[in-house]
C-alpha cells in the first residue's frame, strides 16, 4: 500500500497511490528534536517562508499563483510528535483530471512548493526583517489565542506542570518571549541548519505512481542534498514531582484536567490494549466518563480522555461548575477504579474496540487522514500499519484491558475556575 | 432511483422522492470504508413561529436545539448512542439557524445503522423528567458558549445588525427561554416539522442506492403528511439598528466580526448564483489574493486569523469578515473605501478568471469531504438547488455581477461592526 523510497540518504519519500480522490496532497517535514532553544524558531520558519519567494515576492503574488493552480494550497505544518518537533509545508491540490484540457496542476504545484522551501525572498542575504517581525507577532497572537479556548488552555497548563523536565512540557509553538527574541539573521542561520541537517520526511497521496513523484521531486532532493544525522529514539514519560494547581480567571465554566501516567507507549505490545482502555474510560459517547459522570450524574457538559501514546500519558478534561470540582474528581477516579476492577461490560468492550477499528478503517478514506497517520507514525515510532493495528485491537481481551488500567496512576491535576458562579 | 452522472466532477448521484415526500439522495463512493448518512429537517433555530393544522404556534427560542438533544431519548430507556456504538458507528447531530441535522458515520452494519437513524429521529419521546434533566446540560452548553469569544462576537453582531429577524437570538436560546420548553412544546415542533416531506436523507459511501430507498420506505412508511407553514413575521430593511457594538472578555487579542446586510436569498438557481457571485466579491474585496488583504496584513491591521465570505440563512444574508485586530474601525474604513473603488473600477478580466478557477478548484477538492458534501447537498436542496450543478453556475458568472454586488452592498448604512476587547485587569499577564 505505502511505498517507501530513499531519495537521498536522510530524505525519505512515502507514497500512497490512490486514484479515488479529487485532490492529492504532499507534505514535507523536517524533523527536529524538541527543545526549548529552537521550538519557537521551528514554528516561525514556515510562516516566514510562506510570505514571499524569489518569483512571488509578496502574499498577493503567492495567492495569485495558487489561484492559477485551481486554488491549490500550501500551508505551514508544525507538529509535536513525542520528543520530536517537525517543521515544514503541506500542499494540497486538485487532481489533474478536473483541469481544463492541457492544464496540469501537480507539476507546477510541486515546483512552487520547492521554490517556497528553498528560494525564499532575501534581503542582504537573510530573511526580510518586515516579514520576520510580522510573523513573530502573528505567531505570538496564535499562541496567545489558545488562551481563548479554555479547554485547550487548561490542558496545556496541566501538561506544562505535570511534565516539567520532559520535552512534553514544551509548547508546540514555543513561548511568546522566545518568539519575540528571534532575529532575522538568527532565523536564517537556523533555516540553513534545518535544511542541511534534519531528517526529511515526504509523504504523498494521489493518483501518480511513486516513480513519477520521485522524478518530480528529484530536483528538490538534489538541492537539499543527502544527510546523515539521526535523532535519538523516542522516550516514554518519566514522572517527576506531582502538581495540583487551581487558577482563577473570568470564565463562566470551570475546566478540570487530570493527568495519569502509564509505562505503556506506542512502541509497546500493550499499546492496543491501552487504546481500548482509553476508549472505554473516556473515549466517546459510550465511555464510562460520558455515560456516568455526564449523563447519569449531570456533573458536566463535556468530558473525555485522551491517551498520548508516544509518551504514555493519559489525560481527562471536564467542563464543570466551579463548586463541582471535588465531586467530579472523585467520580472520575471511581470510574477508573471500576476499569481496574474489571467492572466492564461486554458491550462496553465491544463498543470501544469497534470505535477504534472504525477510525482505523477510515484512515484510507481521505488524503488528509492518510497523511496524518503515516507521516506521524514514521516519526513517533509506531510501527503498525492501520491493518496490523486493527488486528492487534481485535485480539485485545478483557483481561488485557484490566491489566492496562492497572498500569495507570493519577499524577497531577489542574483546575481553572471563575471568580464567581 | 434516478442516476445522474456529472461529468465535470466525475460524480454519480442517485435521487428519488418517496411517496411520503422524503427526498433521498445517494452519492456512491466505491472502495471507501466510511459510510455517512445525514437525515436533515428543514427546521432550525429561527423557525419558532409557525402555523399548523389551523393553529398558530410561537415556540420559545432554543426549541430546535433542545429538540435535537431530546430526540436521542427512546421509549424503554433505550440508549441510541450506545446502540450505534455497539454497531461500531458514531452518531451526532447539530442545529443551525435554519436546519437540524442528525447523522451517523460507520464502516460496518450500514443497514442497521440507517434503520436506527431513521427510527430515532422519527420517534418523539419526551418525559417531564428527562426534559427537566436536559435543562442542566443545555445550561452548561450556554455557559460554554458565553466563554467562547468567537460565538459571542458573532451573536453580538447579529443582535446589533437585525431589527426583528430571530437570528438576533443565539441558536441555543437563553437561560430564560429554555425554561419555557416543555414536553408539549417539543412534541408540537416535532409533529410540525419532522414529517418526511420536510426532510431529506443523504447517504455517501460504498452502498447500494436501492437499499437506502427500501429501508427509508420500511421505517418511515408511505403516508404523506403536510408540514407546518413557517411564519416569517420579521421586517428587515437594508440598514442596521446599531452600527457598532463592543464587549470585553478574557481574550488575548482584540477581535472583531463585521458584516454588510444583504437582501434575503431567493430559492433555486438565482439564489445560488448570487451566493457564488458574493463569494467571488468577498475574495476580490478582502480575500488573500486582494490588494486590500496584502495592505492590511503588512500594516498589521489584520493577521492570518482574518477571513470572510458570504452567509445565507433563511430570511437573511450577509457579507461577513472577522479576525483579530488592534484597530477594527480602521479595517472597516479600509473595506468601505476599497469596495467603492472596486465597484467603480471593476476587476481585470485575467484576475476575475483566476478567481473563478480557484473557487471552482476548491469546491471540487471539497467533494473529498463526506461531511461537507452531505451537508451541502441537503442545505442546497432546501433552497431548491442541485448542489452538483455548481460548475455550470460558475462558468456563467460575469464580472459585471461582482461589481454590481459590491456597489449595492458595501455601504456604510449596511455595515455593522462587533468587537471584543481583552479585559483590562489582565494586562499584567
CATH topology of the largest domain in chain B: Cytochrome Bc1 Complex, Chain A, domain 1
Model regions low in confidence, pLDDT < 50 over at least 5 residues of chain B: none
Decide which structural class fits the backbone of chain A. alpha+beta
Shape of chain B: globular
Q: Evaluate the radius of gyration of chain B.
A: 23 Å
What is the helix fraction of residues of chain A, given as a range? 40-55%
Distance between the termini of chain B: 62 Å
The largest beta-sheet of chain A arranges its strands as 1-2-8-3-5-4
CATH C-level class of the largest domain in chain A is Alpha Beta
Order of helices and strands of chain B: EEEEEEHHEEHHHHEHEEEHHEEHHHHHE
Radius of gyration of chain A: 23 Å
Major sheet of chain A: 6 strands, mixed
CATH hierarchy, class of the largest domain in chain B: Alpha Beta
Q: What structural class should be given to the helix and strand makeup of chain B?
A: alpha+beta
Strand order of the largest sheet of chain B: 1-2-3-9-4-8-7
**Number of contiguous helices of chain B:** 14
Summarize the structure.
With 421 residues, chain A is an alpha+beta fold. Chain A has 15 helices and 13 strands.
Amino acid at each position: 500500500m505505502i511505498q517507501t523510497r530513499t531519495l537521498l540518504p536522510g530524505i525519505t519519500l512515502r507514497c500512497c497511490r490512490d486514484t479515488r480522490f479529487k485532490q492529492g496532497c504532499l507534505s514535507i517535514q523536517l524533523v527536529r528534536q524538541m527543545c526549548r532553544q529552537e521550538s519557537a524558531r521551528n514554528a516561525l520558519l514556515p510562516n516566514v517562508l510562506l510570505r514571499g519567494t524569489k518569483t512571488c515576492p509578496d502574499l498577493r503574488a503567492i495567492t495569485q499563483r495558487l489561484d492559477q493552480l485551481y486554488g491549490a494550497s500550501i500551508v505551514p505544518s508544525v507538529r509535536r510528535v513525542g520528543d520530536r518537533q517537525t517543521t515544514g509545508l503541506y500542499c494540497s491540490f486538485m487532481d489533474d483530471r478536473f483541469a481544463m484540457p492541457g492544464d496540469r496542476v501537480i507539476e507546477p504545484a510541486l515546483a512552487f512548493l520547492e521554490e517556497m522551501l528553498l528560494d525564499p525572498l532575501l534581503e542582504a542575504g537573510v530573511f526580510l526583517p518586515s516579514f520576520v517581525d510580522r510573523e513573530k507577532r502573528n505567531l505570538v497572537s496564535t499562541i496567545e489565542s489558545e488562551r481563548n479556548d479554555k479547554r485547550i488552555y487548561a490542558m496545556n497548563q496541566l501538561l506544562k506542570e505535570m511534565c516539567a523536565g520532559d520535552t512534553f512540557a514544551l509548547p508546540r509553538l514555543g513561548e511568546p518571549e522566545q518568539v519575540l527574541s528571534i532575529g532575522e539573521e538568527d532565523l536564517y542561520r537556523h533555516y540553513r541548519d534545518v535544511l542541511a541537517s534534519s531528517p526529511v520526511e515526504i509523504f504523498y497521496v494521489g493518483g501518480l505512481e511513486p516513480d513519477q513523484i520521485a522524478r518530480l521531486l528529484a530536483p528538490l532532493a538534489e538541492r537539499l542534498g543527502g544527510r546523515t544525522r539521526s535523532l535519538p529514539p523516542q522516550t516514554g514519560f518519566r514522572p517527576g514531582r506531582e502538581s495540583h494547581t487551581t487558577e482563577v480567571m473570568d470564565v463562566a465554566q470551570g475546566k478540570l484536567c487530570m493527568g495519569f501516567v502509564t509505562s505503556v507507549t506506542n512502541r509497546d505490545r500493550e499499546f492496543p490494549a491501552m487504546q481500548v482502555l482509553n476508549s472505554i474510560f473516556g473515549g466517546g459517547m459510550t465511555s464510562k466518563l460520558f455515560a456516568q459522570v455526564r449523563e447519569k450524574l449531570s456533573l458536566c457538559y463535556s468530558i473525555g480522555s485522551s491517551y498520548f501514546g508516544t509518551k504514555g500519558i493519559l489525560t481527562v478534561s471536564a467542563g464543570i461548575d466551579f463548586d463541582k470540582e471535588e465531586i467530579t474528581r472523585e467520580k472520575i477516579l471511581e470510574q477508573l477504579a471500576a476499569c481496574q476492577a474489571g467492572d466492564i461490560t461486554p458491550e462496553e468492550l465491544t463498543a470501544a474496540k469497534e470505535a477504534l477499528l472504525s477510525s482505523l478503517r477510515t484512515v484510507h478514506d481521505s488524503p488528509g487522514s492518510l497523511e496524518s497517520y503515516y507521516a506521524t507514525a514514521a516519526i513517533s515510532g509506531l510501527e503498525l500499519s492501520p491493518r496490523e493495528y486493527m488486528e492487534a485491537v481485535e485480539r485485545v481481551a478483557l483481561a488485557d484491558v484490566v491489566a492496562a488500567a492497572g498500569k495507570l496512576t493519577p499524577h497531577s491535576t489542574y483546575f481553572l475556575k471563575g471568580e464567581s458562579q | 432511483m434516478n442516476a445522474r452522472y456529472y461529468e465535470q466532477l466525475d460524480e454519480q448521484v442517485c435521487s428519488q422522492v418517496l411517496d411520503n415526500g422524503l427526498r433521498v439522495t445517494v452519492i456512491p463512493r466505491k472502495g471507501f470504508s466510511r459510510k455517512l448518512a445525514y437525515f436533515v429537517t428543514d427546521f432550525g433555530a429561527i423557525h419558532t413561529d409557525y402555523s399548523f393544522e389551523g393553529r398558530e404556534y410561537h415556540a420559545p427560542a432554543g426549541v430546535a436545539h433542545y429538540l435535537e438533544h431530546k430526540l436521542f431519548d427512546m421509549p424503554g430507556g433505550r440508549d441510541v448512542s450506545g446502540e450505534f456504538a455497539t454497531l461500531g458507528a458514531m452518531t451526532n447531530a447539530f442545529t443551525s439557524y435554519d436546519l437540524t441535522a442528525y447523522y451517523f458515520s460507520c464502516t460496518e452494519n450500514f443497514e442497521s445503522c440507517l434503520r436506527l437513524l431513521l427510527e430515532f429521529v422519527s420517534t418523539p419521546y419526551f418525559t417531564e423528567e428527562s426534559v427537566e434533566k436536559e435543562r442542566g446540560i443545555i445550561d452548561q452548553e450556554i455557559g460554554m458558549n458565553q466563554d467562547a469569544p468567537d460565538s459571542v462576537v458573532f451573536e453580538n453582531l447579529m443582535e446589533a445588525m437585525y431589527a426583528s429577524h430571530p437570528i438576533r437570538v443565539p441558536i441555543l436560546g437563553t437561560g430564560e427561554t429554555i425554561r419555557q420548553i416543555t414536553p408539549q412544546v417539543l412534541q408540537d415542533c416535532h409533529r410540525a416539522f419532522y414529517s418526511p416531506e420536510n426532510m431529506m436523507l443523504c447517504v455517501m459511501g460504498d452502498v447500494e442506492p436501492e437499499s437506502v430507498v427500501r429501508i427509508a420506505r420500511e421505517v418511515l412508511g408511505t403516508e404523506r403528511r403536510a408540514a407546518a407553514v413557517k411564519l416569517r413575521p420579521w421586517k428587515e430593511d437594508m440598514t442596521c439598528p446599531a452600527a457598532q457594538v463592543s464587549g470585553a472578555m478574557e481574550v488575548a487579542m482584540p477581535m472583531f466580526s463585521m458584516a454588510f446586510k444583504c437582501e434575503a436569498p431567493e430559492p433555486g438557481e438565482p439564489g445560488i448564483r448570487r451566493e457564488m457571485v458574493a463569494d467571488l466579491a468577498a475574495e476580490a474585496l478582502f480575500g488573500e489574493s486582494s490588494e486590500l488583504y496584502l495592505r492590511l496584513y503588512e500594516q498589521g491591521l489584520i493577521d492570518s486569523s482574518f477571513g470572510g465570505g458570504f452567509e445565507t440563512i433563511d430570511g437573511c444574508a450577509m457579507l461577513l469578515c472577522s479576525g483579530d485586530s488592534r484597530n477594527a474601525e480602521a479595517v472597516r474604513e479600509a473595506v468601505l473605501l476599497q469596495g467603492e473603488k472596486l465597484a467603480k473600477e471593476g476587476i481585470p478580466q485575467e484576475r476575475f478568471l483566476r478567481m473563478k478557477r480557484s473557487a471552482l478548484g476548491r469546491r471540487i477538492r471539497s467533494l473529498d469531504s463526506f461531511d461537507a458534501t452531505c451537508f451541502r447537498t441537503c442545505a442546497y436542496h432546501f433552497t431548491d438547488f442541485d448542489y452538483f450543478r455548481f460548475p455550470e453556475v460558475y462558468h456563467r458568472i460575469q464580472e459585471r455581477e461582482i461589481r454590481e454586488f459590491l456597489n449595492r452592498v458595501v455601504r456604510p448604512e449596511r455595515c455593522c461592526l462587533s468587537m471584543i476587547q481583552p479585559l483590562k485587569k489582565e494586562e499584567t499577564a
